[in-house]
Design brief:
The protein is an alpha+beta fold and about 700 residues long. The protein has 4 domains: about 220 residues, Up-down Bundle (Growth Hormone, Chain: A); about 200 residues, Up-down Bundle (Growth Hormone, Chain: A), CATH 1.20.1250; about 90 residues, Sandwich (Immunoglobulin-like), CATH 2.60.40; about 100 residues, Domain of unknown function DUF5300 (Immunoglobulin-like, Sandwich). About 55% of the residues lie in helices and about 15% in strands. It is built from 16 helices and 19 strands. Strands 3, 6, 7, 10 and 11 form a 5-stranded mixed beta sheet that branches. It has a 4-stranded antiparallel beta sheet with strand order 5-4-8-9, with no helix packed on it. The chain is elongated, with a radius of gyration of 33 Å. About 40% of the residues are buried.
Length: about 700
């Protein structure tokens, strides 16, 4: 087809579906841990990065399996089956109704869901990691030696399919997650968000197998990584055996492998180890980079996602692939040529150093943003403390005095104070005074660590009051809002919200909080009293707020209400995350692309797979660093953790710059050519000696 083997189109479609499956599942994973399995932020982050690390460790297993035993085709098919099973198990594990026997909306057997989820993730890691080094190489095998141009075009199409799958899935699956589904109770639709990627993985497998008869299948030829490891192992063992002073020193410790391995392999291994030594600081970059899917996504849950249409927190990850598509051609076509015109020697290792610095600055930006988010976050009572808010539901001002002489507060009509913090042990009682009226209210029995609202109303001959328990001790999750109703009417009222009955409230009683979606949506409030019924459309509540709505009275079939803000809506917009994404993406462009290019230019022709394995291993180690820090960190503020990561990468950046300054660039092809020429000369000398010996024997 236009000079291309038809088989490669099956491979490109296969890669698109597989990347859609992987990135779609990964986009919603940390929120699944937090909101479905109810893990805290640190545990959710740790397990997320454990999974990602495993995904980047298993490619070594896949490469050995393909090169030494099964071949690429059988490895891809067998591990894709494992992959599909894993996606299916994860999807089944996220079905709430699987163990919700009492139909209360919460799983009765959380351990079952955790077990299925972890099993599914382990199988996915084996599958996606195992096929990672095989698919692109298998596609390259389909071309003849004289099809260099077509092969290059194929790899462009291949990586386009990778980015397309990532981009589309990061848009689609968070929207699927945000929908509600369920048999008995409606919940966030994680089964669908994981189920669609499972279907795409099955399609990926079917498409790949469908092209089986067209593929060129290269037989396993042994894995060079194993040869390198054996060479290094033998050199170390041989050096240890000959450690006494009677044995002369050798120029390089790898030269101790001369007794068993040829000089070319040893020279190639030396070149590889020089590059792998430079890889040692690189995991710190990946430790920061992969937090887009964990810490940064969790950060977005506390922000305002109104972009005209509601944007889900996990959809902010799409900024990275969009910026990649923009920045790669901009950097290649404008930035690098401009630097070259300025006669600056911007070597690959300098580019990698700049990439690390930019990633460090991205986390400084994330820390500054987190400080602004924390400023708008509500303060909840600590141990030994209780918070009380005063709410005047009447039309007459009043003064509230806390006993014994703790505080005196004036409260205007239809107004409420902010939450005030008291030591629980000091709370005894309070008194409300308005004109000649006064009422005392006991505060004994209030619980520490809780919030309360003292609601009161001055009547003509009395002061009615009630202490309301505010059972909200954290900001609403996923940008949702909480609202409740308090009856300041003289008679009993029935409250209906969006056609659903909420509560029947006696005077000065409050309903439980009702969860409503975040955004600009308005809600219809209907009330019914013994005398009349009336209605009104609510205000727009934004994201992450909690309100108490006072039902006052009706005027011409319209209900009069007053809003009291219990928890303010998220006011910091998600768009403020774009600067940190921009800095991190710029860092990725000059770090990742340059790093692979540098590695390939410095690697011997037959050992590029060893450096690819080392590169993937650096990603895995970076994720392990995150889970260690998330598990061991004693920092109570998230901004402080961002600063810690930024500082660590900055220090590593300086260390890498020093290491890079001692590195000498080599031309592997030239070195290999010298060895080949030397080998030919040695062979010629051996032939000459052989002929001379043969002539001597005849004489």
């Amino acid at each position: 087809c236009s000079g291309f083997p038809l088989s490669v189109f099956f491979i490109v479609i296969n890669e698109f579906c597989e990347r859609f499956s992987y990135y779609g599942m990964r986009a919603v994973l940390v929120l699944y841990f937090k909101y479905f399995l109810h893990w805290d932020d640190n545990l959710a982050t740790a397990i997320y990065h454990t999974f990602v690390a495993l995904c980047y460790l298993t490619p070594i297993l896949g490469a050995i399996l393909a090169d030494s035993w099964l071949g690429k085709f059988k490895t891809i098919v067998s591990l894709s089956i494992v992959y599909t099973i894993g996606q299916t198990v994860l999807s089944v594990g996220s079905i709430n109704d699987l163990s919700d026997h009492n139909r209360d909306g919460s799983p009765d057997n959380v351990a079952l869901h955790i077990a299925l989820s972890m099993l599914g993730l382990i199988l996915i890691a084996l599958g996606t990691g195992g096929i990672k080094p095989c698919v692109s190489a298998f596609g390259g095998d389909q071309f003849e030696d004289d099809q260099e141009e077509q092969r290059s075009t194929f790899f462009s199409l291949f990586y386009l399919s990778v980015n397309a799958g990532s981009l589309i899935s990061t848009i689609v699956t968070p929207n699927l997650r945000a929908t509600e589904c369920g048999i008995h109770t409606k919940q966030r639709c994680y089964p669908l968000a994981f189920g669609i990627p499972a279907v795409l993985m099955a399609v990926s497998l079917i498409v790949f197998v469908a092209g089986s008869r067209m593929y060129k299948k290269v037989k396993p030829q042994g894995n060079v990584m194993l040869q390198v490891c054996k060479c290094i192992g033998f050199a170390i063992k041989n050096r240890f055996r000959h450690r006494s002073k009677e044995y002369p020193k050798r120029e390089h410790w790898l030269d101790w492998a001369n007794e068993k391995y040829d000089k070319l392999l040893i020279a190639q291994t030396k070149m590889v180890l020089k590059v792998l030594f430079l890889y040692i600081p690189l995991p710190m970059f990946w430790a920061l980079f992969d937090q887009q899917g964990s810490r940064w996504t969790l950060q977005a849950t506390a922000m305002n996602g109104d972009f005209g249409i509601p944007i889900q927190p996990d959809q902010m990850q799409i900024v990275n692939p969009i910026l990649i598509v923009i920045m790669v051609p901009v950097v290649d076509s404008f930035v690098y040529p401009l630097i070259k015109k300025c006669k600056i020697n911007f070597t690959p290792l300098k580019k990698i150093t700049v990439g690390m610095f930019l990633a460090s600055m991205a986390f400084v930006a994330a820390a500054l943003l987190q400080v602004q988010i924390d400023k708008t976050s509500p303060v909840f009572p600590a141990a030994g403390q209780t918070q009380i808010r005063l709410m005047n539901l009447g039309s007459v001002p009043a003064t509230v005095q806390f006993q014994s002489q703790l505080q005196s507060v004036d409260v205007a009509p239809k107004e409420a104070t902010d939450y005030m913090i008291f030591r629980t042990s000091q709370l005894q009682s309070l008194s409300v005074a308005s004109g000649s009226l006064m009422k005392n209210e006991s505060l004994e029995g209030l619980l520490e660590g809780k919030r309360y609202t003292f609601a009161f109303q001055v009547l003509s001959s009395d002061i009615a009051s009630n202490v309301l328990f505010d059972n909200v001790t954290s900001k609403p999750e996923e940008g949702k809002n909480l609202i409740r109703f308090v009856n300041s009417h003289v008679s009993r009222v029935e409250v209906i919200l969006d056609g659903k009955a909420v509560a029947i409230l006696p005077p000065l009683n409050a309903s439980n909080y009702t969860t409503i979606p975040g955004g600009k949506q308005q809600h219809t409030i209907n009330i019914t009293t013994p005398l009349y019924a009336c209605t009104i459309s609510s205000k727009k509540f934004g994201f992450g707020s909690a309100y108490t709505i006072s039902i006052n009275n009706c005027t011409q079939s319209n209900v009069n209400i007053t809003y009291f803000e219990d928890i303010p809506p998220s006011s910091v917009h998600m768009a403020w995350q774009i600067p940190q994404y921009f800095l991190l993406t710029c860092g990725e462009v000059v770090f990742s692309v340059t790093g692979l290019e540098f590695s390939y230019s410095q690697a011997p022709s037959n050992m590029k797979s060893v450096l690819q394995a080392g590169w993937l291993l650096s990603v895995a180690v970076g994720n392990i660093i995150v889970l260690i820090v998330a598990g061991a960190s004693k920092l109570s503020k998230q901004w402080a953790e961002y600063v810690l990561f930024a500082a660590l990468l900055f220090v590593v950046c300086i260390i890498f710059a020093i290491m890079a300054s001692f590195y000498t660039y080599v031309d592997p092809n030239e070195i290999e050519a010298q060895f080949n020429d030397q080998e030919k000369e040695d062979k010629k000398d051996q032939d000459d000696h052989g002929k001379a010996a043969e002539a001597d024997s005849k004489m």
